[in-house]
Amino acid sequence: MKRSGSPWLRALTAVCLLLAGIACGGDPGDRVDRLRARYSATLGSFVVRDDPASGRQEILLDVLVQWDGREPLPGLTLDLTMADAAGREKGARKLWVDTAGLDRGPGRQLTLTVDDLPYQAGDGFFVEVRVPIPPAERGDYREFSGGR
User: Strand 108-114 to strand 89-98: parallel, antiparallel, or no bridges (unpaired)?
Assistant: First the structure.
């Protein structure tokens, strides 16, 4: 079967159809990644509380979450990393934060609690909104679950 038209025209048509498909929806996970990219999280400080009775520690993290997008997410998964004094990673957690009602601009100060990390004096923390999230890891991030 002989095709009509120039190969360049067929290639251009294929590219246009691909772009139209992306613009009309595309991968929902990619959409969530684009929305996540409009958020930032900054760790201000942290406090460690020891409970001598139980032998457990409670770590309170003071985090500023900001947003500058057009379409908000109802919540956001933050990546928390703990490192020792030499900078070696000791542990990592995913922290869900409620972002409903978060206005654009200065953001909202949140106190997040973690009680399952082996903190020792000299350890530090880093929090981030990681983007992009590889498709294989999206199940670890609540906002990708389709509850939106």
Answer: unpaired
Write out the chain's pLDDT in tens, 148 residues: 444 455 554 444 444 444 444 454 578 999 999 999 999 999 999 999 998 888 899 999 999 999 999 999 999 999 999 999 999 999 999 999 999 989 998 999 999 999 989 999 999 999 999 999 999 999 999 999 965 4
Residues 6+ apart with CB under 8 A from 75: 96, 97, 98, 99, 100, 142, 143
Give me the domains of the chain, ranges plus CATH numbers: 27-145 (2.60.40)
Task: Write down the residue that tokens 């190969």 correspond to.
Answer: 7
What would the DSSP string read from start to end of the chain? -PPPS-HHHHHHHHHHHHHHHHHTT--HHHHHHHHHTTEEEEEEEEEEEEETTTTEEEEEEEEEEEE--SS--SEEEEEEEEE-TTS-EEEEEEEEEE-TTPPSSS-EEEEEEE-SS---TT-EEEEE---SPPGGGGGGSGGGGS--
